[in-house]
Amino acid sequence: MTTLDATTGQAAPSGWAAGLKDRLQQLLAFASLIVIFGFFSVASSSFFTYGNVTNILFSTVVIGTLALGTTFVIITGGIDLSIGTGMALCAVMSGVFITNMGIAVPLGVLLTLLFGGLIGLVNGFNVSVLRLPPFIATLAMMLVAQGLALVISHSAPIYFTKDPGYVKISTGSIFGVNFPNAVLVLLVAVVVSVVLLNKTILGRYTYSIGSNEEATALSGINVRRWKIVIYTLAGLFIGLAGVMISARLGSAQPATGMGYELQAIAAVVIGGTSLAGGKGSVVGTVIGALIISVLNNGLQIMSIPQEWQNVVLGLVILVAVYADMIRKKEA
Please, where are the H alpha helices in the chain? Predict the structure, then answer.
């Protein structure tokens, strides 16, 4: 029996069929991850080792954290280009709070997260209230954040020498083995994201806005307010990524950040989230982030030049976007 989509009014597959299709897409992405992992394991004996697998997970933390927040934004049909330089600005602010101002680490981390939320709030205001296209609004924020990071830090790194405990947030291990805390932080962030997207009203409205924003507004939902909330949530993840990368490096590097937005968006798209909005999952995003990390790590182990690594990543993104277009045509 054919049903009608609540937001578009058009024929839509049953919930069971749609859910099965989403799971199949996640399985396809996961299968791709296994194939890539298997290829590099055969190509290099030093790839499939405990130390290297840990390094892959460790390198996934920053991209994965940024991608989690970006997933919510892209599901609404938006985009956020400011996450990379915004992360660098948040890293600089963590250095200002903890090193320059001498604030205790827990409070400094909280203030950094809130500062990231402020970046997202401004993005949400520009997109929702001022009606700026997300691409333009977040592009402007990307440039502003890049400039502020350099201005506030005086174009110099801020080292966390006064409180080395900050570094342990990322590189330390509560288990006493070679398993960094950063990976545990990412796992907690993934669980929180899954709950928010699948079990709360925020998640339902995120999907609804992306599926049909006009119909969502006509149903009585304050779309402007919820867009601001969604972009602010993405900003909190920017702040968390800023904490993780500065703790990993042991310093706040104002020049870092450029390029991370592209990898995070690529992870979201590779994971099956539609750039048209209304569709996506946290699990798919995590798989996409792992695919990017495995590719980068494997190509480096095989001594492939950086420029060719970029070529491979670009081709993977093209394939992922083309697959998304095919899925939309079939729908």
Answer: 15-43, 50-75, 83-95, 105-128, 134-153, 168-171, 181-199, 201-211, 213-218, 223-249, 260-270, 282-301, 306-330
